[in-house]
Design a protein that fits this description.
Chain lengths: 371, 128
C-alpha cells in the first residue's frame, strides 16, 4: 500500500476533432475532479502531468498538443502548489505513483493529476513524421517508416500471429468486445457503433496485420484525478480508491507482491489497447495466460463482461478513443466506486491497470479496500 | 529510388553511414566482450567500455518480422512499403530495421542479404 487514495475524478467530453483547445478539455476535467473530491482549487497544493503528445508528426507546443504544469496552473488559477511535476513520457499510472510518493513524503496534501490529448487538425495523429532529417534513435528507423501507422507494433503483431496460430478473425474478437463495451460508455467515440466481422475484414489495411479498426481513434479529451493520503480520504464525498501497489514494465510481477494481492484477488483489469494485439502479451506476462495463448482469452470470452477477468469494461482505447491510458485509470476508479452503471462488475474490489506497449509501460493496482 | 529522411548522425553513427555509402556493412565491436551492436551505441552496453572497433561483417541476415504499410510514410518513402526487422547472422542478438525489397515475398525465418540502396540506406533483399 502506498497510503494514497484517489478521491476526485473528472472527465471532459471526448471529440474526434475540435475547435476547443487542449486547455479547455483539461479544465473541464480538472474543475470536475476538484468538485467531485468536495474541494476547491485553493485546496490543491500538488500537481502532476504527463503531457507528451504521442503523434508521429506532433508539434509539441504548450497549449496546442501538450499542456505543461505552468500553463495548467495559470489556466486553473492554482496558487498554492508546494509540489508539482511533469513526467512527460510517462503514462497515467506513473502519474498516480508519483502523486502517491509526494503525498507520502509530506510535500503536499491534495494532488491534481491531469492527462489531456488533442488531435490537431493540421497535424493529425495518424500522420507520420514529416521531418526531413532523422535524429537520434530515428536515424536507424525513420528512413524505413518503422514508426509509421503503428508499423513498429504491426511487425511484432505479425510475428505473434504466426507463432501463436491466431488470425485476423481472432483480432476481430478483441475489437468487437471493445465496441460492445463502448456501447455502455456514454463518453466513447465508438458507442452504439457495433462492427460486423465482414466490415472488419473489408476495412482498409494500415500496417499489416492491422486494419483501420485495430488502431485506436485519435481524439481530443482529458481526464483528471485528485489524490490525498488515505487517512484523509474518508472525509471525501465518494468512496476512496486506494493506490494499493505499482510496478514498472521490467518487473511487472512486483505489482502483486507490493499490493499484497494475488491474481485471484483481481476482479477486473484495464489493459492498454492502442492496437488490438497489445493485451495478449501482457496477459501472458502477468500470468493470466500461458505464452502465446493470450489471444484465446478473448476468443473464449474470458475478457467479456461476466467472464473470468472482464477487461477494458469501458471499451478501452479501441472503443473509447485514444486517451493514452487516462480512460483506463478513470474506468478503474468508477468500477471500484461502484459507479460504472450498466457496465459495473459485481463485487469489484481490486482492479489492475497496465498502460503502455511491450517495451515501456507502468502498472497500478487500485482497490476500494485500504488493507 | 525514393529518398528518405537524411540521417543526422552523431559520432557513434558516422562510421556506419560512411561504410554504407561505400556498400560496406560494418558494426562496432567491443573487443573485451566479443560482441557487436546495432544501432551503434556510444559504449558497449555489456561492459560500458567506450573503445569500440568498427569491423566489416558478413552482410547476411534472417527475417524476424515485417509489416506491409499501406498508409502514410516518411518523406521520400510513399506507401505501400515494407519495413522489416532482421537478425544479423554473424552476431546473435543483433537485429536491424531496414526496408525490405518489394520483390521479396516475406516468410518468417527466411534468409536475406543486407545491401544498401543508392541513398546509402540498408535494404534487405533475397539471398541468391
Amino acid at each position: 500500500m502506498t497510503g494514497a487514495a484517489i478521491i476526485g475524478l473528472g472527465s471532459s467530453p471526448i471529440e474526434r476533432g475540435s475547435d476547443r483547445g487542449i486547455d479547455a478539455f483539461a479544465l473541464d476535467a480538472a474543475v470536475a475532479a476538484i468538485a467531485d473530491a468536495g474541494l476547491s482549487r485553493d485546496d490543491i497544493d500538488g500537481y502532476v502531468g504527463a503531457p507528451s503528445a504521442t503523434a508521429g508528426d506532433a508539434i509539441h507546443v504548450d497549449g496546442a498538443d501538450e499542456l505543461s504544469q505552468r500553463l495548467m496552473a495559470e489556466r486553473l488559477g492554482l496558487r498554492r502548489l508546494t509540489w508539482s511535476a511533469d513526467l512527460y513520457w510517462d503514462f497515467v499510472p506513473g502519474m498516480i505513483v508519483a502523486a502517491s510518493h509526494a503525498l507520502a513524503s509530506g510535500a503536499c496534501t491534495h494532488v491534481l493529476a491531469v492527462r489531456a490529448l488533442h488531435d490537431l487538425r493540421a497535424f493529425p495523429a495518424a500522420t507520420p513524421s514529416r521531418r526531413t532529417h532523422a535524429y537520434g534513435e530515428e536515424q536507424f528507423e525513420l528512413p524505413f517508416g518503422y514508426r509509421t501507422g503503428g508499423a513498429r507494433f504491426a511487425m511484432r503483431a505479425g510475428r505473434y500471429l504466426a507463432r501463436s496460430g491466431a488470425t485476423r478473425r481472432d483480432l476481430y474478437d478483441v475489437v468487437a468486445l471493445a465496441r460492445d463495451n463502448a456501447s455502455r460508455n456514454p463518453l466513447a467515440v465508438w458507442r452504439d457503433k457495433p462492427l460486423s466481422l465482414d466490415d472488419y475484414l473489408a476495412a482498409p489495411m494500415i500496417a499489416e496485420p492491422f486494419c483501420l479498426y485495430d488502431c485506436d481513434m485519435p481524439v481530443c479529451g482529458a481526464v483528471a484525478f485528485v489524490l490525498t493520503r488515505g487517512d484523509r480520504a474518508l472525509e471525501a464525498p465518494h468512496r476512496p480508491v486506494h493506490v494499493a501497489g505499482w510496478a514498472g514494465w521490467q518487473q511487472p510481477d512486483a505489482i502483486f507482491e507490493r499490493s499484497r494481492r494475488a491474481r485471484a484477488d483481481v476482479q477486473v483489469a484495464q489493459l492498454y489497447d492502442g492496437f488490438s494485439t497489445m493485451m495478449f502479451e501482457w496477459l501472458e506476462r502477468l500470468g493470466w495466460c500461458a505464452p502465446d495463448r493470450g489471444w484465446r482469452f478473448f476468443s473464449e470470452g474470458h475478457a467479456a463482461p461476466g467472464g473470468t477477468l472482464p477487461i477494458n469494461t469501458f471499451g478501452g482505447s479501441l472503443g473509447e478513443g485514444r486517451l493514452h491510458g487516462a480512460g483506463h485509470v478513470r474506468e478503474a476508479v468508477l468500477q471500484l466506486r461502484g459507479q460504472a452503471g450498466a457496465r459495473q462488475v459485481a463485487r469489484a474490489e481490486n482492479c489492475l491497470v497496465q498502460v503502455g506497449p511491450h517495451d515501456f509501460a507502468s502498472l497500478l493496482m487500485l482497490s476500494n479496500r485500504s488493507d | 529510388m525514393d529518398r528518405g529522411p537524411t540521417p543526422a548522425a552523431t559520432a557513434d553513427g558516422i562510421p556506419f553511414w560512411r561504410g554504407a555509402a561505400e556498400g560496406r556493412f560494418r558494426l562496432p565491436y567491443c573487443i573485451a566482450c566479443a560482441a557487436a551492436f546495432y544501432p551503434p551505441p556510444p559504449r558497449c552496453p555489456i561492459c560500458l567500455a567506450d573503445a569500440l572497433e568498427w569491423r566489416d561483417v558478413a552482410a547476411e541476415a534472417t527475417l524476424v518480422e515485417w509489416s506491409r504499410v499501406h498508409r502514410g510514410g516518411p518523406p521520400g518513402l510513399p506507401s505501400p512499403f515494407t519495413v522489416a526487422r532482421a537478425s544479423v547472422d554473424a552476431m546473435p542478438g543483433v537485429t536491424m530495421i531496414a526496408a525490405l525489397d518489394p520483390a521479396v515475398a516475406p516468410i518468417h525465418g527466411m534468409e536475406l542479404k543486407i545491401g544498401f540502396d543508392s541513398g546509402g540506406f540498408p535494404r534487405l533483399t533475397a539471398r541468391t
